[in-house]
Design brief:
By secondary structure, the chain is an alpha/beta fold. Among the domains are: about 1-70, no CATH class; about 720-755; about 765-885, 2-Layer Sandwich (Phosphorylase Kinase, domain 1). About 10% of the residues lie in helices and about 20% in strands. It has 9 helices and 53 strands. The strands form 8 sheets. The chain has a 26-stranded mixed sheet, with helices on one face. A 6-stranded parallel sheet has the order 38-40-42-44-46-47, with no helix packed on it. The longest helix is centred in the C-terminal third of the chain and has 26 residues, at about 715-740.
């Protein structure tokens, strides 16, 4: 008697559906028709495969047998299909065949990563023997069928990494045998059904990566005592972490990062004795870190960064003897760093940056000999750097910038042979740079900006061939720049600005062919600019300003095909601007002011159409007329030609439609002032001491009576007006004192409130306005918006206004509070902020430009509706580009603290 061929024909059914649907061939018209076909159909099907030249058969090419075991299909002894597994097979189906539900004996269905789209057929709910259903990593859409709740034998359900939407069906609570439920990385919405708390066999529950999943975490999930993993990260889940999670005695991983969870961390989590990974970063958690977490002796990763946690770091965390990563950065923690953390001998990463920690750096941290990353930056730490830091032989990165650490740099850093990044910027360090540091063969980033370091730059710097960034600006280093620096063949950034370097600029710097930034401004460097500098063809920014360079601007500067900033102001340069300037087709800013340059402005400068930010030729000896070619600088926003000997008309400037700032004062210009909306907004300071300039109705001829603008009045008239204004002001002040004498208390209270909001600042002219891109508004437009009703937030470093420009554009204006640092030269502020203005990162709010006068500093940002206001409030000018060398630990779409 012939044995049943049910498994064979069922296999042919499966094969025909998956293969022929993929090829869009209508071979079979109905399930019943195929089931009645003879066994020989399998060989016919193989022939069909070969005729279509398929590279392989997903089901194999074995000869037909009565007990079939084709690749991907498993049958029972009764010749029933019990398993269909085709993972990572390119089926390319537009839908899942609902006829698969006819395989009533099916126990395993795995079609993961097979390029299937469409929805999940509700008829799959009839596969009551199914124990594993894996449809992950496809393009399935639609909702999760509630009918899947009928699969009472199901143990593993993988629907992750699709495009499924709708709510999570509460009927899934009927899957009493379910051990793994993976729904992550979809588009499901609604909340987590509390009924799922009845799945007592559940070990893994993953719903992370569903941005539309909202609501609170059901406390009933605390009943899932077999749960080892709960993943709800990168969702809209909110509310508090249920204290009932303390019942999850088998929990190993709790991932709730990048959600909207708030409240305090429940101390009950200290009862989860099996916990290995606790990921709560990038939330809105408040309160203190529970000391009870110190009971978690198996904990390896504790990530709490990016919250609003307060209080001290519990010393009890030193009992977490298995801890490998501890990250509490970007919170509001206070107090001292517990010395007991030195007991964590397997700790590899300690991130405590961006808090308000005080006190000394505990020398006991040197006992953490497995440390590879130690980040203590942006705190209020003081005292010396412990010399025992040299015991950290595995240390790769050490960030301490933005503290108040004093004393000298320990020479024992030379023992940290694995060190590749050392940032001690913005502290109070003194003494010289230890030569031992330059013996570190892997050191690529050395940042010592903003200290009080003295002495010379050692010649041994040449030994550190791995250096990529050397940033020593804002110190008191002196002597000559050693020519050995030219041996650093991998150096990309070289910052030596605001020191006391003297002597000539070594021509050997030209050997650093990969150099992109060279900044030596504010030193005492003399002599001519070496023409060899022009060989640095990869240079993007060159700042030699505020030195004593003499001679001419080298013709070789025309080789800078990537240069976007050339800053040579405040030197003793002479001669004319070389015509090779035309080759700088990526130049956005050119500052040659305060030199002794002469001759005509070369027409070639008008062909540098990339000039968008600023062109400053002021305070030189230029003669002649404005070249007609400058009409091509249509994207230029700031132009300063003041204090030269230029003459002729300024009509051509009316064509520069992007200008937001212009100064042509103290020249010999004549003729009518252009009649454009921009020129009508200019203050008198823009045209001073050009007696032959005049107003015009049509922009071509002067009025018959030669009426002059207020800005063209003689110095005598201006002085008279000034005296009158001062007298009137004094009279008003005297009257105010008399009127308010009897209301002193109320006035002081009102002034206090006003000062807290607006800073009671002086908004008087002149203003410096430097944009970092094309901006369609002026400083007056910005100042008009600095009103109390436009305040959207205040923080430790400033107040932020919502500012709507006349063209409807919204920007955020941050006005910095006055601090002692405001006593620093304005040029220092400008230099740093210009660096910040060109940082580009998808998670850093874009800086559009800055404005400043003698007492007020304004930062202009893109306005982000419902965005992270905290980024604006906590940003600081102390984040010089070099100080931002941190690892981007902000996972996924998080905010990078700093990286450059």
């Amino acid at each position: 008697m012939e044995k049943p061929t049910h498994c064979i024909t069922s296999s042919l059914l499966l094969f025909s559906f998956f293969l022929l649907l993929a090829m869009n061939i209508a071979l079979v018209t109905s399930l019943s028709a195929l089931m009645d076909k003879p066994f020989s159909l399998f060989s016919q099907l193989l022939t069909l495969i070969q005729s279509h030249h398929l590279p392989y058969s997903p089901l194999g090419t074995h000869q037909a047998q009565r007990h079939v075991h084709w690749q991907g299909i498993t049958c029972s002894p009764q010749d029933r299909v019990i398993s269909l597994s085709l993972p990572n097979t390119f089926l390319n189906l537009s839908s899942l065949p609902p006829e698969l539900s006819s395989l009533s004996s099916l126990q395993l269905l795995n079609l993961s990563s097979t390029n299937i789209s469409g929805s999940i057929p509700p008829s799959f709910g009839s596969l009551t023997h199914l124990r594993l259903l894996d449809l992950s990593s496809n393009s399935l859409s639609g909702s999760i069928p509630p009918e899947l709740g009928r699969l009472t034998s199901l143990q593993f359900l993988f629907l992750n990494s699709n495009r499924l939407s709708g709510r999570i069906p509460q009927q899934l609570a009927n899957l009493s045998s379910l051990q793994v439920l993976c729904l992550q990385d979809n588009l499901v919405n609604g909340s987590i059904p509390s009924q799922l708390g009845s799945l007592v066999s559940l070990q893994q529950f993953r719903v992370g990566g569903n941005p539309y999943l909202t609501g609170e975490i059901p406390p009933q999930l605390g009943l899932l005592t077999n749960l080892t993993t709960f993943g709800g990260a990168a969702t809209g889940l909110s509310g508090v972490i249920p204290p009932t999670f303390g019942n999850l005695i088998n929990l190993q991983t709790l991932a709730l990062y990048d959600s909207d969870v708030f409240g305090s961390i429940p101390p009950e989590l200290g009862l989860c004795s099996e916990l290995r990974n606790l990921y709560l970063h990038m939330n809105k958690l408040t309160g203190s870190i529970p000391p009870q977490l110190g009971k978690l002796q198996k904990l390896t990763s504790l990530l709490l960064w990016g919250n609003s946690l307060t209080g001290p770091i519990p010393a009890e965390l030193s009992n977490c003897s298995s801890l490998v990563i501890l990250d509490t950065s970007a919170n509001d923690l206070t107090g001292e760093i517990p010395g007991d953390l030195g007991k964590l001998v397997v700790l590899e990463q300690l991130h405590l940056s961006d808090n308000s920690l005080t006190g000394l750096i505990p020398w006991q941290l040197s006992n953490c000999t497995s440390l590879t990353a130690l980040q203590l930056d942006k705190n209020q730490l003081s005292g010396p750097i412990p010399w025992q830091v040299g015991n950290l032989k595995s240390l790769q990165s050490f960030f301490l910038w933005g503290n108040s650490v004093s004393g000298t740099i320990p020479a024992t850093f030379g023992n940290c042979a694995e060190l590749y990044a050392l940032d001690l910027s913005r502290n109070k360090l003194t003494g010289s740079i230890p030569e031992e540091i330059f013996g570190l063969k892997k050191l690529s980033k050395l940042l010592l900006l903003g200290n009080s370091l003295s002495g010379g730059l050692p010649r041994s710097v040449s030994k550190c061939q791995s250096l990529v960034r050397l940033r020593l600006g804002e110190n008191q280093l002196s002597g000559q720049i050693p020519k050995e620096i030219g041996q650093l063949q991998n150096l990309v950034f070289l910052d030596l600005y605001m020191n006391h370097f003297s002597g000539g600029m070594p021509s050997e710097i030209a050997n650093i062919t990969v150099l992109e930034l060279l900044d030596v401004h504010n030193n005492y460097i003399t002599g001519e600019i070496p023409s060899q500098i022009g060989e640095l063809v990869n240079l993007e920014q060159l700042d030699l300003s505020r030195n004593s360079f003499t001679g001419e601007i080298p013709w070789s500067f025309g080789n800078f095909s990537y240069l976007n900033k050339l800053i040579l102001n405040n030197n003793l340069l002479a001669g004319s601007i070389p015509k090779s300037i035309r080759n700088l087709q990526k130049l956005t800013l050119l500052d040659l002011s305060f030199n002794s340059l002469s001759g005509a402005i070369p027409p070639e400068i008008g062909y540098v159409t990339s000039l968008t930010i600023s062109l400053d030729l002021s305070s030189n000896g230029f003669t002649g007329e404005i070249p007609e070619t400058m009409s091509g600088l249509t994207q230029l926003q700031s132009l300063d030609l003041s204090r030269n000997m230029l003459h002729g008309r300024i009509t051509i400037l009316g064509l520069l439609t992007s200008l937001t700032s212009l100064n042509v004062s103290y020249n010999n210009f004549s003729g009518p002032i252009p009649v454009t909306p921009f020129f009508r907004t200019l203050s008198s300071n823009s045209f001073l001491e050009n007696p032959n300039l005049c107003e015009s109705l049509d922009g071509t001829t002067c009025s018959s009576h030669q009426a002059q603008r207020n800005g063209l009045k003689s110095a005598k008239t201006i002085a008279l007006i000034s005296v009158i204004l001062i007298s009137v002001t004094m009279a008003v002040i005297a009257s105010w004192i008399v009127v308010t004498r009897n209301h002193k208390y109320m006035v002081e209270k009102s002034l206090s409130t006003l000062a807290s909001t607006s800073g009671a600042d002086d908004f008087s002219y002149p203003w410096t306005f430097i944009p970092f891109q094309k901006l369609n508004f002026t400083i007056d437009n910005i100042l008009d918006c600095l009103k109390d009703e436009n305040v959207i937030g205040k923080g430790c470093s400033g107040v932020v206004y919502r500012a709507e420009m006349p063209n409807g554009e919204l920007i955020a204006v941050k006005k910095l509070w006055k601090t002692k640092k405001d006593e620093e030269p304005v040029d220092s502020f400008a230099a740093e902020i210009q660096i910040l203005g060109h940082i580009r990162h998808r998670n850093i709010v874009k800086l559009l430009g800055y404005c400043s006068n003698k007492s007020v500093k304004l930062l202009l940002y893109n306005y982000i509706s419902n965005g992270n206001l905290q980024q604006l409030l906590q940003s600081s000018l102390e984040l010089g580009l070099g100080n931002q060398v941190q690892d981007c630990r902000w996972i996924s779409s998080g905010s990078c603290l700093s990286s450059s």
